[in-house]
């Protein structure tokens, strides 16, 4: 196990903890957390808003840690290091850090809730942000897997 396998989920978690700490004192007694056509139609207390903001992030970071830990343990037992040219460290790092993508999208939604309640403005639409991150994530995954396949095929053709 290496911390580089889960660095992105942990960084995103720490950033959202900092964002939550900054905005907590700016939140009103009733925090708007659900919107219909840009207007609030669902409210929570500031404490429940913090639970809504942080609990999913903590759970996703824990999933990344568990996934990376289990994969490295399984790989050390069952993966023949000389049997393939696929770099296991790269794959485990990709799997562990990929969890940062939904964390970032969810963090953007929480940031919109905080900004709206503190300053009464909305961030750009979530779907634009989510689409941008899905495209970037798809490109990164594609590059990693194409490189792994080329390495594997290059080793077999020699």
Features:
158 residues; elongated; 5 helices; mainly alpha; two-stranded antiparallel ribbon; single chain
What can you tell me about this protein's structure?
72% of the residues lie in helices and 8% in strands. With 158 residues, it is mainly α. It has one domain. The longest helix is centred in the middle third of the chain and has 33 residues, at 46-78. The mean pLDDT is 87.
Terminus-to-terminus distance: 32 Å
How many helical elements?
5
Encode the helix/strand succession as letters.
Answer: HEEHHHH
Structural class: mainly alpha
Share of β-strand residues:
5-15%
- Spatial order of the strands in the main sheet? 1-2
Alpha carbon gyration radius? 20 Å
Q: How many strands, what sense, and barrel or not for the largest sheet?
A: 2 strands, antiparallel
Number of strands: 2
Q: How helical, in percent, are the residues?
A: over 70%
Mean pLDDT, all residues: 87
Provide the fold topology.
Blueprint: H1 7-24, E1 31-36, E2 39-44, H2 46-78, H3 88-98, H4 100-119, H5 126-156
Antiparallel strand pairs: 1-2
Question: Brief overview, please?
Answer:
By secondary structure, the protein is mostly helical. The chain is built from five helices and two strands.
């Amino acid at each position: 196990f290496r911390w580089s396998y889960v660095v992105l989920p942990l960084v995103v978690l720490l950033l959202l903890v900092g964002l939550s700490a900054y905005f907590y004192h700016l939140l009103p007694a009733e925090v708007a957390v659900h919107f219909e056509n840009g207007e609030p139609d669902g409210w929570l207390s500031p404490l429940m808003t913090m639970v809504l903001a942080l609990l999913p992030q903590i759970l996703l970071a824990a999933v990344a840690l568990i996934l990376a830990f289990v994969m490295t343990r399984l790989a050390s037992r069952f993966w023949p290091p000389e049997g393939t040219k696929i770099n296991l460290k790269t794959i485990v790092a990709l799997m562990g850090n990929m969890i940062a993508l939904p964390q970032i999208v969810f963090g953007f939604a929480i940031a919109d809730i905080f900004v709206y309640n503190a300053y009464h403005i909305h961030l750009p639409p979530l779907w634009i942000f989510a689409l941008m991150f899905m495209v970037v994530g798809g490109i990164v995954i594609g590059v990693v897997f194409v490189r792994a396949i080329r390495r594997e095929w290059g080793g077999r053709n020699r």
